[in-house]
Amino acid sequence: MRRKTDQTRQRIVDAAYELFWRSGFTRTNVDRIAAEANLTKRTLYSYFRSKDDLLAAVLLRYGELAAARLQRIGERTPDDQIGMIESLFNQMAGWAGATPRWSGSGFTRLVVELADLPGHPARAIARRHKTTTEAWLAGRLAKARVGRPQERARDVMLLIEGSMALMLIHGDRSYIDAASRAAKQLIKQK
Amino acid sequence: MRRKTDQTRQRIVDAAYELFWRSGFTRTNVDRIAAEANLTKRTLYSYFRSKDDLLAAVLLRYGELAAARLQRIGERTPDDQIGMIESLFNQMAGWAGATPRWSGSGFTRLVVELADLPGHPARAIARRHKTTTEAWLAGRLAKARVGRPQERARDVMLLIEGSMALMLIHGDRSYIDAASRAAKQLIKQK
């Protein structure tokens, strides 16, 4: 029984994750999530009290997937300074190119959707994720003996976020290439 | 009569602009716009057939305001390379700091909200606006005798978009300062 309950819960979270990713949080309604998960809205509400509760569960899932992605990126990333930067941005370009209707970082998108709600719990989770990513980058840069790795990690974060925004706006991956070149230039600093 | 009609139309656009800015496009409904403009929904629909039509009118207004802002920024921006970059990012920080519930570029936000609708007419307007801004930057950089002004304009755009995203995520203006420093470093290239 417990098992079936867990499976149903997971099915709801997966459907919500899929739909939030596809159409954003605001434009996805609970009816559609229930339909996608193949159950009634009443059943859905016996697992999650509200769309915000469901969002919290989805964000945990987002966070796990994002951590797994960082892990995989890390495994594929060489330790030399130039190779590392190229690999990071190439993997980003590959992700953008291979994902149908790619819309950039799910966390960034959520923050933009909830821009007028700074106290929303999802905002804190997104913030933590970005902080973790920046610290992870600083660790990699330090390992590659880049000077002032914390400051350079911040530069790389700026270029990652900027290139995701401009790639989404223009549908043009040359912004990712430009970001990669700029990052290589910036990590040369003493 | 024509005059009163124009004024009413303008009042609707202003109310919609205000609300789209505050809560985003998706979460703003037509009832609220009508209430804010102090008229009935029926009257609103005699001016605009749909929320999307209204969005098109609001985007024209966005575009005018954005062009006026670029103009003002230009007037306040010195022509020396370092001073220009510092002035640009300082003005951005001032804008972010002075705007209640600042949520970054309205065009970027709209593109993120409509990430799954690449064919939406609003996306094309946003794209044009960013292209204009990048060309304007390239012109300013060329005037300041920065080498490869087109490529450097792209770098500055990446840092502007990245710092708006991270400023929104973290509520921390030090990302704008970091972007300013990175931009100054990048325009030094031969």
Search tags:
2 domains, mainly alpha, Arc Repressor Mutant, subunit A, 190 residues, homodimer
Question: Secondary-structure blueprint of this entry?
Answer:
The structure is a homodimer of 190-residue chains.
Chain A (H helix, E strand, L loop, with lengths): L1 H22 L6 H8 L3 H7 L3 H26 L4 H18 L7 H8 L7 H23 L5 H22 L3 H14 L3
Helix pairs in contact in A: 1-2, 1-4, 4-7, 5-9, 6-7, 7-8, 8-9
Structure in words:
Chain A is mainly α. Chain A has two domains: 55 residues, Homeodomain-like (Arc Repressor Mutant, subunit A, Orthogonal Bundle), CATH 1.10.10.60; 112 residues, no CATH class. Chain A is 78% helix and 0% strand. Chain A is built from nine helices and no strands. The longest helix of chain A is centred in the middle third of the chain and has 26 residues. Chain A is elongated and about 60 Å long. The mean pLDDT of chain A is 92.
> How many separate domains make up the residues of chain A?
2
Q: What kind of assembly state do the chains in view correspond to? A: homodimer
Separation, N- and C-terminal Cα atoms of chain A: 61 Å
Work out the strand percent of chain A: under 5%
Q: How many DSSP helices of chain A?
A: 9
Q: Mind telling me the C-alpha Rg of chain A? A: 19 Å
Low-confidence stretches of chain A: none
Structural class of chain A: mainly alpha
Overall 3D form of chain A: elongated
Largest interface: A-B, 46 and 46 residues
Portion in helices of chain A: over 70%
